[in-house]
Amino acid sequence: MVEKGGAEHTVFRVGEVHGVVTKRVEELVSVFSAIDSSKATTNLWGERWSKLCQNGMHNGVSAATGLPGRECVRDEALRRFSIKLGGEAVRVGQALGYQLVNLGKLVPERLALASEGNRDALVEIEELMLSREARNPRGGTQRPSTAQDMRKGRRTEIQFMNGFIAEKGRLVGVPAPAHEKLTEIVTRVERGELTPAAANLGG
Questions:
Q1: What is the pLDDT of residues 16-51, one digit of tens each?
Q2: How large is the average pLDDT for residues 143-168?
Q3: Whose CA is closest to 56, among 19, 31, 81?
Q4: Does the pLDDT at position 143 exceed 90?
Q5: Helix (H) or strand (E) holding 12
Q6: Regarding the domain with residue range 44-201, which homologous superfamily does it belong to in the CATH classification?
Q7: Which of 13, 17, 112, 191 is the most buried (most CB within 10 A)?
């Protein structure tokens, strides 16, 4: 069997909420390794929040605009809105005390700085996003899960993704206005009050 993740990306990361690598964690890693690349982690909360940051940057943007992921990244306004989403999520996670890991090749602190107007960080993050999309073998029609739910008329997970980040931000006193805006817009599209369009997010 050819591993989907292999050395490039560990697909399954298994851990306990308290951070100790227990026997059952090791057993689960062994089980999941039969499916794809797996590892034990002592940083489950940091790993999960980092994944939430990554998903929160893209899923709702595609749902709000009706555009596939590649087109969202190629549009400068939408790309920078996504960077704002990522940076806010990083700052909320840091305030919660999580040890964040890279979002693909995006370094969390550099992403946050880019979202806050640091020019060098913005250039770096945009180059990484554009180069990743250019290498995407699945082409330009792929849509993340939230956008797929929207197209099929199903209730989306926006409240449990971007809405959750905004809620945690309020809890720790770290504003996340981009997440609040995206949650509101996707909810309105879901209800039929808005039509999916790049203009919904300034694209």
A1: 999 999 999 999 999 999 999 999 999 999 999 999
A2: 85
A3: 81
A4: no
A5: strand 12-14
A6: N-(1-d-carboxylethyl)-l-norvaline Dehydrogenase; domain 2 (1.10.1040.10)
A7: 112
* Nearest residue to 51 via CA among 98, 121, 4, 113: 98
The residue length of the chain stands at 203
Domain boundaries, the chain: 1-42, 44-201
Q: Which of 29-33, 89-93, 132-136, 168-172 has the lowest mean pLDDT?
A: 132-136
pLDDT computed for residue 2 by the predictor: 43
Assign 3-state DSSP to the chain and report helix, strand, coil percentages, each to 5: 65, 5, 35
| Distance spanning both ends of the chain, measured CA to CA | 42
Look at residue 6 and tell me whether its pLDDT is greater than 60.
Answer: no
Label residues 22-40 b or e (16+ Cβ within 10 Å = b): eeebeebbeebeeebbbbb
Is residue 39 within 8 A of residue 28, CB to CB? The reply is no
Which residues, 6 or more positions from 74, have their beta carbon under 8 angstroms from its beta carbon? 130, 133
pTM above 0.85, yes or no: yes
